Amino acid sequence: MIYFNCDYNEGAHEKVMERLCMTNMDQTIGYGEDEYCEQARNVIRGLCRDDSLMVQFLVGGTQANMTVIAAALKSYQGVLSADTGHINVHETGAVESTGHKVIALPAVDGKISAEQVEHAYLSHIENDSFEHEVQPKMVYISNPTELGTIYSKAELEALSQVCRTRGLYLFMDGARLGYGLTSRENDLDLEAIAKLCDVFYIGGTKVGALFGEAVVISHPALKEDFRYMIKQKGGMLAKGRLLGVQFQALLEDGLYFEISRHANELAEDIRSACRKAGYPFLVESPTNQIFVILPDDKLEELQKEYSFCYQERVDETHSAVRICTSWATSRENVQKLVDDILG
Amino acid sequence: MIYFNCDYNEGAHEKVMERLCMTNMDQTIGYGEDEYCEQARNVIRGLCRDDSLMVQFLVGGTQANMTVIAAALKSYQGVLSADTGHINVHETGAVESTGHKVIALPAVDGKISAEQVEHAYLSHIENDSFEHEVQPKMVYISNPTELGTIYSKAELEALSQVCRTRGLYLFMDGARLGYGLTSRENDLDLEAIAKLCDVFYIGGTKVGALFGEAVVISHPALKEDFRYMIKQKGGMLAKGRLLGVQFQALLEDGLYFEISRHANELAEDIRSACRKAGYPFLVESPTNQIFVILPDDKLEELQKEYSFCYQERVDETHSAVRICTSWATSRENVQKLVDDILG
Amino acid sequence: MIYFNCDYNEGAHEKVMERLCMTNMDQTIGYGEDEYCEQARNVIRGLCRDDSLMVQFLVGGTQANMTVIAAALKSYQGVLSADTGHINVHETGAVESTGHKVIALPAVDGKISAEQVEHAYLSHIENDSFEHEVQPKMVYISNPTELGTIYSKAELEALSQVCRTRGLYLFMDGARLGYGLTSRENDLDLEAIAKLCDVFYIGGTKVGALFGEAVVISHPALKEDFRYMIKQKGGMLAKGRLLGVQFQALLEDGLYFEISRHANELAEDIRSACRKAGYPFLVESPTNQIFVILPDDKLEELQKEYSFCYQERVDETHSAVRICTSWATSRENVQKLVDDILG
Amino acid sequence: MIYFNCDYNEGAHEKVMERLCMTNMDQTIGYGEDEYCEQARNVIRGLCRDDSLMVQFLVGGTQANMTVIAAALKSYQGVLSADTGHINVHETGAVESTGHKVIALPAVDGKISAEQVEHAYLSHIENDSFEHEVQPKMVYISNPTELGTIYSKAELEALSQVCRTRGLYLFMDGARLGYGLTSRENDLDLEAIAKLCDVFYIGGTKVGALFGEAVVISHPALKEDFRYMIKQKGGMLAKGRLLGVQFQALLEDGLYFEISRHANELAEDIRSACRKAGYPFLVESPTNQIFVILPDDKLEELQKEYSFCYQERVDETHSAVRICTSWATSRENVQKLVDDILG
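Above: the input entities. Below: the structure tokens describing the complete assembly.
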């Protein structure tokens, strides 16, 4: 069976593993206050061109989302999110378990707009009984989204502007950020994201690391005491240096972007094959996730050799699946899949 | 200014006040374990024709909702609700603040159907990554709904059946239950509700009491240790007998239903006047809440003397408002309003 | 049976009831934004000689405690309290249910000192792994305490000073404040308390009202959005005016203090009788609660006619009980008890 | 600087790293449902001689503690713990942040007894106002404790018996379990622990793994839906196989016990040196943690080359420190330290 069902089927990139092995018996202090973490922090600050950023490393995405959101919000405040957002549908109510409502907005291709945020804000404050409603205080977006789409610089600027005008925090979930930043349609970079968002993270788990998400905080109010939150929410790794070592390996020489580009190119090969075969897409996505609609018999045939992520039934004879490439996907497996799609 | 904006503008029915004054200097033990509460419990058990019911008295609706829901659900479980449901929009995230997601279903006229519940349940268990989603475990409905509509016996039976088949608790918010049970369209009674629901409450705050909601629990799992939850969530009234005294006054001789019927009749008078004047309704409701669409100039004129609850802008020249009658509404004020609507 | 077991056995003072009846059919807006509440707020601001105070009315003490504490603290912050404090032992973990640790300090006669607070603060910040501990951010005291003792002005000033120096909020639970302020040993008044504390409440439930606690907030950070918290925690009374009306009746002409003094005087009569009979006290308390140690046979005899609150077994032949007087206690019943103690 | 301050200064045992490298590019499904995890589960079930055990792998100790406790308790229930217990003092209120009170019992050398648990249970149920208190429902112990002491089989049997009689869950935090089970004073084994506890974990982070705790659940009620809890609390590792691979390497051939024994032996060498030098111990501990009281000048001298964990000031000229050995500690470093202690 060849797995195209997600982007975390393998371990870590060989250079990451090498670095972990090389530093394995070094003695360091714990909890992310070691030298490796500090070096990785500086690499990230350099890439974002902002020395004042706080960088904290967490193990996983749900953990990062719940910790950031719970740290930012007061008890009666909620977070605006696309209804398809990871926090709204795939985290077993982790945000709610910290006491906060996820206020879902209807997404278009996984994205929400500045206008929707402005409207939600105004609806709240113009309501006579506003104290009887959750107060919106943060906007959560993912980039790429759960549907593989990405925000343009103009869209992110518009979101950032409404958030700053209205006193909302802007938070970008970058679990797949590498695949977004190296998409051929992308016009964002880390510097712009660090400027436009109040907090975001650079995802490692799905982009070459064994695990790890680098949370980057620019808003001063969100920096305060953030490490207490990491500890309380169970996210403070004893051997924190494991995270620093991995992000250093991924980011100091551009490996992160190189392997992301690789995944996007292979995804494009699969996408082209689908187009050539006449299979439409559930959503047009320019990153490593392909949402294609296949005839059921074709799907059944492919599933003998390949694992995909089932999405939904489209009509009586068609289903949508997600096909994922990643930093670890081989050209050979993609070529074989392309042949079988076209075959 | 004459208030028609809600059904809690006045204090309590005179017979309730009399009883409170009469028992005022009696010494009783606290926390709802006194004789008055016990008598009121027995009256309610009698009306429901079920001696095994647990009855606990709480002060208000949001408190009752959050206490019941938090008592019923485990950390990773959520409650299905109409998107217009009180817990979803008017309680400042009280349910989420206890750690639970409100899973909103699109309502029709404030109601949700057995089919929607079945679909939500099946979507969850048929999902490959079901553990990554909140597990639906309770269905919350309000009767009458926030839009003044009511569930028929057939609808409630269908909901009850799917809940029992699927292991979900069925919870009815009866903040305005009196107005529902005395609606001319109603075919439910307390006995049927107690049988079909696992827990519900008989609202006092909006139907003749100073305050108070009588929570009636039939499901054994929900009875266990429920009083710990009342205390923890801040709802255990020191002088609990105040609740017992009021519900006894309201329920022992049918006063509750009599004053509810009064409100419904007056609402019908207003509704007829609106119809006669050609004003359409946002929703057809057979209880004490009237959702009428008025021309803006007419609304402006009426607002000089009357207070309504603004709902929404309908088009450039029309707005929807809620007009409420209650146990306390006088025929004189309604007649005056009818004249002014028609005038 | 004559009840001396607590100070909430009866309803409300007759003047409070009169006022509730008198205003019963007035139409007001809800949720504490009516005129009666506004007038009561102004009375309280006047008594505290501070027009900038926020005053919000809640129904009960546990509700007030959890709402204030949850509003003040961030997720990783905790509240310092006497180990005998109400929030630590008698509220079913209400504070913890909002996510916050109660950090218990060993109390002397129900009280904690400025030195203990300073020590707890320093222990935390001087700890190398401080982020692994709950951050102390609020000090909770009750006055009178659960043991009937009171804080002197000097003690409160010392607590206030350490709190302000260390950035901690000082919160006084005044569920029995009337009995404290009219104790013959007291040297505090509302003005001093409002200056020295960041938030406190004037208890009504135990001092002449049917129910109600007037939360008085002086610290600007605690005022912000406090009403959202009241609603979310289930404490926003629909007919909020019931609270305003009661506090107006109690406070505008000094009734609150008059009836508190009455209870203290009667308590002193009982205390004298105990002394005369040679019964020692578990703790010396100058307010309406008497903690006396009785021989078991004497206790058994008294319990045939009187209800007390059992405290603890002291030795093989003695037990401690709490005897409470209140605004509602009659001289006749006290005289009878005194005779029976001495008899 | 040579680190003796904790037992997580290095990465993982070389055999663990080898296995991680060897399996690195294998494709597996995520979230701990892969073959490696299944094999590790079976190894653990074999060691515990119970095929019915649920085994789930979590990343860290705080995460394991909060997830297990939150999964086990209802909202109004609390967990009994030694006052020195990790959950009570070193987890930033993680348990409270899930809504539950940690009910602290005074520990003797880090341990609590069956008598204390029985007493706490009886105090609660015999209290007239038990519903106003947190209901004790779980007992948390750590073995070894935070002070390096261990429970004997007789002590654990007594705790288990009272828990079963009183309907309490018994939970053992085994973050350092290897060091406990290989202590020369130990008479427990995994089979006994699995029988006597309802849930426990085998700590990997401090005993040879990069990270990881294997939670072993025997009580049926605690197994139900436990994976929802892992996900909700942020503990579900995408590449779950990393945990399975490590525990397989550690446990399938006894490596875990071998390296634990190594650490205990080296600790004994240090302990002997301290005894010989006349330095007393804060607590007698038979595992890898040594709590020794040193003269301040000696400590200052040692700290030039060694890092210890400062515990507390003992008197004007003495301080207590914790010296830790681990699986990774070298004989050379210990010999050098021994020489310097004696020198």
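Note for the figure: Chain A has a mean pLDDT of 97.
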